[in-house]
Amino acid sequence: MKLSLRNTVLPAAGAVSLLALSAGLLSNQAQAARIDNPVAVFSGLDKITGRITTFDVYVNETVQFGALQVTPKACYSRDQSEAQKIDGFVEVDEITLDRKIRRIFTGWMFADSPGLNAVEHPIYDVWLKDCKQNSDVPPPDSAGAK
C-alpha cells in the first residue's frame, strides 16, 4: 500500500514516519514561539480622578495601585513570526478600610481583550497591556543596591 504526499509516493510506513516527524517539528515551533517575560505592563484607572496610570511589575513581585496590590505570576508574549498575543496570570488583592487584605481577582488577563478579565473595583480598574523583557524600573533585587 502506498500513500501520496505532494506528488511523492512513499510506502505507508515511510508516510507515517514523515507525519510523526512533521508533527514533532510543529510542536517544537509552537513551544518556541511562546516567550516567558519577566515584566508585566499594566494600566490602572482611578475612577475618582479619571487618571490612567501605566506601570511595570516584575513577575512574582507586588506593586500597589491605590488600594489594590497587583502580582503577576506569569507574562507571555509570542515571537515576531506570530501575531502578538499577550497574556498573563495575575493575582489582585484589595486592602480594605480595616487594613485587611482580600483577594478580589485570580486568573488570566489578555491584553487584546482588556474588558474580558480586567479587574473592576468600585474605585479602580486594572488591566494587562503588555509583557516585556526589560523595564526602566530597577528589579526588586537591585532596589537596595548602590
TrEMBL record:
Residues 1-32 form the signal peptide. Pfam families: DUF2155. Keywords: Signal. The keyword Signal applies. This is DUF2155 domain-containing protein. It comes from Rhizobium viscosum (Arthrobacter viscosus).
